[in-house]
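In response to a reviewer's request, we include the raw inputs and outputs for one of the modeled complexes. The four entities were modeled together in a single run.
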Amino acid sequence: MAAASNFYSIVAGVGAGTGRSVALKFAKAYPVALLARNPANYESIVKEINAAGGQAIGISTDVSSESSVKNAFTEIQKEFKGKKLAAAIFNVGGRFVRKPFLELTLEEYEAGYEANGKGFFLFAQATLPGLLESVPDSPHPPSLIITGATASLRGSATMSSFASGKFALRATGQSLAREFGPKGVHVAHAIIDGVIDIPRTRDWPVNGGVEDGKISSDAIADSYWYLHTQPRSHFTQELDVRPYVEKF
Amino acid sequence: MAAASNFYSIVAGVGAGTGRSVALKFAKAYPVALLARNPANYESIVKEINAAGGQAIGISTDVSSESSVKNAFTEIQKEFKGKKLAAAIFNVGGRFVRKPFLELTLEEYEAGYEANGKGFFLFAQATLPGLLESVPDSPHPPSLIITGATASLRGSATMSSFASGKFALRATGQSLAREFGPKGVHVAHAIIDGVIDIPRTRDWPVNGGVEDGKISSDAIADSYWYLHTQPRSHFTQELDVRPYVEKF
Amino acid sequence: MAAASNFYSIVAGVGAGTGRSVALKFAKAYPVALLARNPANYESIVKEINAAGGQAIGISTDVSSESSVKNAFTEIQKEFKGKKLAAAIFNVGGRFVRKPFLELTLEEYEAGYEANGKGFFLFAQATLPGLLESVPDSPHPPSLIITGATASLRGSATMSSFASGKFALRATGQSLAREFGPKGVHVAHAIIDGVIDIPRTRDWPVNGGVEDGKISSDAIADSYWYLHTQPRSHFTQELDVRPYVEKF
Amino acid sequence: MAAASNFYSIVAGVGAGTGRSVALKFAKAYPVALLARNPANYESIVKEINAAGGQAIGISTDVSSESSVKNAFTEIQKEFKGKKLAAAIFNVGGRFVRKPFLELTLEEYEAGYEANGKGFFLFAQATLPGLLESVPDSPHPPSLIITGATASLRGSATMSSFASGKFALRATGQSLAREFGPKGVHVAHAIIDGVIDIPRTRDWPVNGGVEDGKISSDAIADSYWYLHTQPRSHFTQELDVRPYVEKF
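The model returned the following structure tokens for the whole complex.
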């Protein structure tokens, strides 16, 4: 794990899959702050990183709450005083609701937007000033990396809650790429098109249960690191990923 | 204007442009309920339709308020008792905020979603049961027609509020098309790519000020009527429209 | 059928389905020239139109042959001397080859492009000068209308021949819309996403064999006529159509 | 440069920019065959690689000629006897023609397709059998990587030749990804959206002439190598790249 660095990173939305892998990956280069509502989602990862000689903190945060986000960033600035922000990863899933449209409550419909619309707005507003500040001297272009999904590109029957949130997230990500790219901040959006291989999905009969039929979260972390290290002459705004056997 | 019909229509988002033209167009076939927050936006249109022998009512409605939508539909059902719903048009613009991202308040960012996400959810939940009921005997497939914009397809610098709302609207529209199309309800989405020719935009120097460089709202109304009258063997889910001189 | 008109129309790719319906539709307003390789594909339609008081001619044409297209347009100009071109519809299917990629011959792969790339190039070059000439006085904006397919938007395993042709067609159509739209010519592209209901497909078990599970070619003709009659302030560049039960 | 490997790679379309950088990058891991019509385009690169301890051959090839491609692959198999194919990169630009549509000759229009449609077909048919053979034991999933452009996604006025070729290329790439992905071959398509920084473009006033306003071809090579090394649980089918200041 990394020795001290003048820069740090933030991962919002940490659990057993992508968030954990991304945290471990970025922790090799930068101290990392992990945000999740439930401390159980980050505690073991924080320990794992610190035990390996890296530096990590975890903060219980509800990204769709203004005050919670504010508190989190106050704490981050205190903990990482003197360091600058190199990378911010938004990997929030939010509550996933799948229901016939006429059975949705308003609150269920809005769950998608709460996390991916409002939550990303708050996260982006909290991280972009720091990313802009790092432009002159960060080792790689300061990066805001966003986790999208199949539902970022198409709505499906019974998926309007999730799709509306992921579409809103993509819209905002594109807007930020066009506004902050020319200022040197790299805003990238990944379409994760498939089931991620985590303990919870281990027994899902995805793609006929073939080997590698689910996405390796470590490979996602590699792709985010690759995005982060792209030079500013060659920014990827969007890429898709899926298992070799996935229908698309 | 139309004599009595056993069916009625609803237009949400009525003002000087598309909403007015659509109301006048659909009023030739069906009584029409016009929804707008500000009664000044529908009063003259209601008069115009009724004076011409059609039937129209206006209801002051905030589509992003559950109770306001509920009240509106209670009133519609009372006014149009015994009639069934043939067409519902969602033409809500919402508050348009254009600002550098870091200057947006949360409330400004959310303005896009309030109208086009939450507002459309409430409108669709209120109209789909009636549209489904009309499937067996309505003169044309019952239709839910949605007004999109350039920002439905791409985010732009300073446009994250509007784009996130219009993306969310499109996501939900696609989800509904896939869920309710097979039940016989036609859900269609129009990308309006250009400035609409209304009194407020008359002096905007759009497309060099050439004749027909702005979109005729009557032509939009014709396109919505065309969509409504498509047979179920031939549903258009999405179409774009723009002036002949518009860059795209 | 139409009395004499000062304008005429052309439909390339005439058979039992879309081409026939489009020819009958446009023949109500304009004399029409029908192009198909095999005269059996247009002879009965020509008779039907002329018997109904319209005016139609058929010309055996291979749109992917320069000399054949040249001959066809020489004959059209002779037959419709003094008239101007109001609408040109490109509805060529071409040879449809569906095979594992490694079993395709070069000639089979190129079949898609021959009809939809090269064929459309020759057709567009032959019709655009006439369409431009009609801009000042044609009853509706002179129109070049193109038949696309699901394969215009996505390649599929075993469909590279057809998809490469339809993608090339769409690319050229977009280029022409951007070049000739500002000059007053309406270039529109329709994505036909489903099986068309013609004698040959009658027994295909499409969409579970439900009523209206295949696309009515008359409805396609209506949509092309609708596109043709759009005013220049409101041009649709692309629309999709599919049966209400089609998965998409 | 690499010591001997049991695998080799092929780069079609080699010149001063992407092709050269990709060749140098892949030559670190595999012997590489460079294809270009003009030997001047590969000779110095072949020397550079061999001088650095790598292994490279160059073959004068016209990818749009069946016999030329056949000869090239016969020679490759002879030169790299006993080795298996790990990666094939299709980076052919072809003749770029930009003209008002009505001034294009058929031959000019077809130039786009010749290189990117027909040329890619011949290249893919020649390389896919070898890539399939390498699936069981290649160090990374055998890869077919394709260079696209802005014109792969949209047609522009005066660009129908190039756009129709690049659309056809993308269609075929998608078809192959869907057919050969499940067999373990990684087919990926890169949208290069910007001007590449090569001697010929050095003085082009792109993006106001700012530093890094053109794409580094070495960064493209890094991205192709990244694509090649993705595990099969996490294949990217498409990604875009552009300079941070590029409008999009």
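As requested, we also summarize the result in words. The CA atoms of residues 9 and 32 of chain C lie 5 Å apart. The longest strand of chain C covers residues 84-90.
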